[in-house]
Design goal:
heterotrimer, A alpha+beta (66), B alpha/beta (271), C alpha/beta (376), B: alpha/beta, 8-stranded mixed beta sheet, C: 376 residues, alpha/beta, Rossmann fold, 5-stranded mixed beta sheet, 13 helices, 20% strand, globular
C-alpha cells in the first residue's frame, strides 16, 4: 500500500479574509496576512482538516499526496 | 485547482461565490456536497431546487440539475419534479424568509404530504439579499432595518413547525459544526419521507452588524458555545435552554412516503 | 372515425390533454374549472400519470412547471382569482422556457365576482397578467369538440416553442355538454419537445443555433445538468447583468412567437365574402354570434364572422384585411371591451367599430347581437 500524506493547500484567489480558519485552528498554523490567509506555522499542522470544513469559500484544503 | 470535493460537485467557473466574507452559507453548501458524496448519489439524478434570497444562489454553484425558482416556491416546484419523476433525488435549499414566510404554506403542506424531498433551510435569521430586514426567525427583541426598535414578533422554530406539520425527519445543525451538520443532512437525504434540516447559518454583514454580534469569528464562537446536543437538552429545563441551539436529530417517524403511495394507486387502477 | 361521446367542455379538456400526452396535473379547486381537476384525479393514474391537489394556485402552477422541467407534459387549470395567483410562475415559465398548459375557465370578476357566472374578462390578463415583457400564446375554444382538439394543439405549441400556453376557456364552453367525436390515436399530430441526441455533451441549454429561436435542452435527469433560473440568464443558463444579453434574450423570447405567426395563428371566417358587417368574437360568445348571423342572413342582412382562435397572438393581418372589406365591425365579447381594444389598435379604425359587451354574468344573447347589427 502506497504511503499517503496530506498537504495543506491555500487558494488565495478565493480567500475573502474572514479569518475563520485561523481562529479555530487548534495548532495556530494559520494567520491573516493583509487580507489573505497564510500558513505561518506549517510544521505544527496536524492535518485535522477542520479549516477545510469551516472555510466558507473553499480556499483552503488538504490534498492527498503520494 | 480546488479540493476533490469542490471539483466534483461545484461549477468552478462560477466560484468564488457571491456571499460575504465569513457567511455561513458557503460552509453549509459544502456540507450538502459532502453529504451527497458520502451517500454516493449519481449527480445526474440529483435535482437541487432553490427559491430566492442569498441561500438560493446555491443552486447556481452546485453541479446537479439545478432550478432557481421564485421566492418561497422551491418546495412547490420540487413537489412537481418529485411527483412526476419519483426516481430523482430532490433536494431544496431555502432561506428562513424563503421557507417560513412567503414559502411557509408550501413548507407545512410538503411536510403534511410526507413527499420524499429533503428541505435544507439556511437560517441566518434575517433577509440578507434585500439588506437586513427581520424575518420569521429573527429572535425576539433583535433588530433589522424593518425592526429598528427591536423585533416584537415571536420567532418560528422551523424544525418544530415542520415536525408539527408532519415532516417525518427533522434536525438542526449549525454552520460551525460542519461534521455534525453533514451527517444530519446525509441522514435527511437517506430518509424516505419529507425531511427538514434547519441549519443555523450566520450573517455577519447584516444581522451581525445590526445587532452588534461582532465578527464572523465571534458569531461562529457563539454557535460553538451555545449549541446543545439534543440528548443533553433532554436533561435541561426550558429556562436553561433559553437562547440555546438544540442540535441533532429532533424527530423521525415512518409514515408512508407520498410518491410510493401514489404508485400503489397507479398499480391498483391499472390492474 | 372515432367514438362519439357526450361530454362537458371541462371533461373534453381533460381528455384532450391526455391525448396530447399530458401525464401530470397539479391544481386547486375553483369554480368553474373544478371538473378539470376532478377529471384528472380519476384519469391520471389510469394512464400512469400523476395528479396532485396542491395547497394553493401558486403552488399548482409551480408544480406543473417542475414536472415539465423533469420532462413530463403537464397542466394546471383555474378560474377567476386563481388566474391572478398563477401569474407569478407563468412569467417564470416564459423566461425559463419550460412548456406547460395553463387552463383558465373564465368567470365573472373582478375579485371573487360572480363565481358561477360566465365571462371573458381575462383577455388582457392572459396577455399582460405577469410582469415584464414576455410572449404568450392563448387559445380560446368555442365548442366542446374544440375543448378537446384545441387542448391538443395547446400542448403541441407549448412543446414546439418551449413556452407556456394559456387555454382560455370560459364558463359557457366549460360547462356546456355536447356530443363530440373522440379522435383515434394517431389522428391528431402530437408534438414532443426537441431533446439533444446526447444530453451529457449537449453544452449550453439555452443556446440557439443561427436562425433558430427555440433552445433544445434535455429534461432533468438525462445528464445535461444545467441551471434554470428566473433571473435574466445567458445561453449557459446562469444569471447575468449584461444589458446586451438581457436585450437579446428577451427579444428572442418574443421572436419565438412573432417569427412563427404562420404556424401559430388560427382563426375562423364565416360568411365574410359578401359581408357588409363583420362580427368579431371568440370562445363561448361565438355560439350566440353564429346563431345571430344565421337569423340575419335569413333576413338578407350581409353579415359574417371573424373568430380569432388564437386570441394571443392576435391575428392582426387577417383582421386588417377584413376591416378593409366591410363597412362595419362589431366586436361581441363577454366583458367591457378588451378584444375591442386590440381590434381598434390593429385596424386603427375607431368610428367603424361597434361593440356588444356584458359584465353582469348573463350570456350575450343572439337577439342582442341581431339588434346591434341592425342598429349599425
Amino acid at each position: 500500500m502506497a504511503v499517503t500524506n496530506k498537504k495543506l493547500v491555500i487558494n488565495t484567489k478565493w480567500c475573502k479574509g474572514c479569518g475563520v480558519c485561523a481562529a479555530f485552528c487548534p495548532k495556530g498554523v494559520l494567520a491573516l496576512k493583509g487580507e489573505k490567509i497564510q500558513a505561518v506555522n506549517p510544521d505544527a499542522c496536524i492535518k485535522c482538516g477542520m479549516c477545510e470544513k469551516r472555510c466558507p469559500d473553499y480556499a483552503i484544503y488538504l490534498e492527498e499526496v503520494q | 485547482m480546488p479540493s476533490k470535493l469542490i471539483d466534483k460537485y461545484f461549477r468552478e467557473d462560477h466560484l468564488p461565490h457571491i456571499w460575504c466574507p465569513g457567511c455561513g452559507h458557503g460552509v453549509l453548501m459544502r456540507d450538502v456536497a459532502q453529504a451527497v458524496e458520502n451517500i454516493g448519489l449519481d449527480k445526474d439524478k440529483v435535482v437541487l431546487v432553490s427559491g430566492i434570497g442569498c441561500s438560493s444562489r446555491a443552486a447556481g454553484y452546485m453541479d446537479f440539475n439545478t432550478m432557481h425558482t421564485t421566492h418561497g416556491r422551491a418546495l412547490a416546484f420540487a413537489t412537481g419534479i418529485k411527483m412526476a419523476r419519483p426516481e430523482l433525488e430532490v433536494i431544496c435549499i431555502m432561506g428562513d424568509g424563503d421557507a417560513s414566510a412567503i414559502g411557509g404554506n408550501h413548507l407545512i403542506h410538503a411536510a403534511r404530504r410526507n413527499i420524499g424531498i429533503t428541505a435544507i433551510v439556511f437560517n441566518n435569521d434575517i433577509y440578507g439579499m434585500t439588506g437586513g430586514q427581520y424575518s420569521p426567525t429573527t429572535p425576539y427583541g433583535e433588530k433589522g432595518t424593518t425592526a429598528p426598535y427591536g423585533n416584537i414578533d415571536r420567532p418560528f422554530d422551523i424544525a418544530k413547525v415542520a415536525e408539527a406539520a408532519g415532516a417525518t425527519y427533522t434536525a438542526r445543525g449549525t454552520a460551525f459544526d460542519a461534521v455534525r451538520t453533514t451527517k444530519l443532512i446525509e441522514d435527511g437525504i437517506r430518509h424516505k419521507g419529507f425531511s427538514v434540516i434547519e441549519c443555523a447559518s450566520i450573517c455577519p454583514t447584516y444581522y451581525g452588524r445590526k445587532n452588534k454580534k461582532g465578527s464572523a469569528v465571534d458569531m461562529y464562537t457563539w454557535q460553538k458555545e451555545n449549541s446543545i446536543p439534543v440528548e443533553k437538552a433532554k436533561t435541561m429545563s426550558p429556562e436553561e435552554l433559553k437562547g440555546k441551539l438544540v442540535v441533532g436529530k429532533l424527530s423521525e417517524d415512518d409514515f408512508p412516503e407520498l410518491t410510493e403511495q401514489y404508485q400503489a394507486i397507479i398499480d391498483r387502477v391499472r390492474k | 372515425m372515432g367514438k362519439v361521446k357526450l361530454m362537458q367542455g371541462n371533461e373534453a379538456c381533460v381528455e384532450g390533454a391526455l391525448y396530447a400526452g399530458c401525464r401530470f396535473y397539479a391544481g386547486y379547486p375553483i369554480t368553474p374549472s373544478t371538473e378539470i381537476a376532478e377529471g384528472c384525479a380519476v384519469r391520471m393514474p389510469q394512464v400512469g400519470g400523476h395528479f396532485i391537489q396542491m395547497e394553493d394556485e401558486i403552488a399548482s402552477c409551480a408544480a406543473a412547471i417542475g414536472a415539465s422541467a423533469a420532462g413530463v407534459k403537464s397542466m394546471t387549470a383555474t378560474s377567476g382569482p386563481g388566474f391572478s395567483l398563477k401569474q407569478e410562475n407563468l412569467g417564470y415559465a416564459c423566461l425559463t422556457e419550460v412548456p406547460f398548459v395553463l387552463v383558465d375557465v373564465q368567470r365573472a370578476g373582478p375579485s371573487t365576482g360572480l363565481p358561477t357566472s360566465p365571462s371573458q374578462g381575462d383577455v388582457m390578463q392572459a396577455k399582460w397578467g405577469t410582469h415584464g415583457d414576455h410572449p404568450i400564446i392563448a387559445i380560446a375554444p368555442s365548442t366542446v369538440e374544440e375543448c378537446f382538439r384545441l387542448c391538443v394543439r395547446a400542448f403541441n405549441l407549448s412543446e414546439k416553442y418551449r413556452t407556456p400556453v394559456i387555454f382560455l376557456m370560459d364558463e359557457i364552453v366549460g360547462h356546456l355538454r355536447e356530443g363530440i367525436e373522440i379522435p383515434e390515436d394517431g389522428e391528431l399530430p402530437i408534438v414532443n419537445r426537441a431533446i439533444p441526441a446526447d444530453p451529457a455533451s449537449a453544452g449550453h441549454a439555452y443556446a440557439t443555433k443561427e436562425g433558430q429561436t427555440v433552445p433544445v435542452m434535455a429534461p432533468f435527469g438525462m445528464g445535461q445538468r444545467y441551471n434554470i433560473t428566473g433571473l435574466i440568464h445567458a445561453d449557459d443558463g446562469f444569471p447575468t447583468n449584461s444589458t446586451d444579453i438581457a436585450d437579446s434574450q428577451v427579444k428572442r423570447l418574443i421572436r419565438k412567437i412573432d417569427d412563427n405567426l404562420d404556424d401559430i395563428l388560427s382563426w375562423e371566417e364565416k360568411d365574410l365574402d359578401d359581408a357588409d358587417v363583420c362580427v368579431v368574437c371568440f370562445g363561448g360568445t361565438a355560439r350566440s354570434v353564429y346563431s345571430a348571423v344565421e337569423t340575419l342572413r335569413n333576413e338578407g342582412v350581409k353579415v359574417g364572422v371573424f373568430r380569432p382562435i388564437t386570441v394571443w397572438p392576435f391575428p392582426a393581418e387577417e383582421m386588417r384585411r377584413i376591416a378593409g372589406k366591410v363597412k362595419k365591425i362589431i366586436v361581441a365579447e363577454h366583458n367591457d371591451g378588451q378584444m375591442l381594444l386590440e381590434v381598434q389598435r390593429v385596424t386603427g379604425l375607431y368610428d367603424k367599430i361597434g361593440f356588444v359587451g356584458k359584465v353582469n354574468g348573463t350570456v350575450i344573447t343572439p337577439e342582442e347581437i341581431v339588434k346591434a347589427v341592425k342598429e349599425g
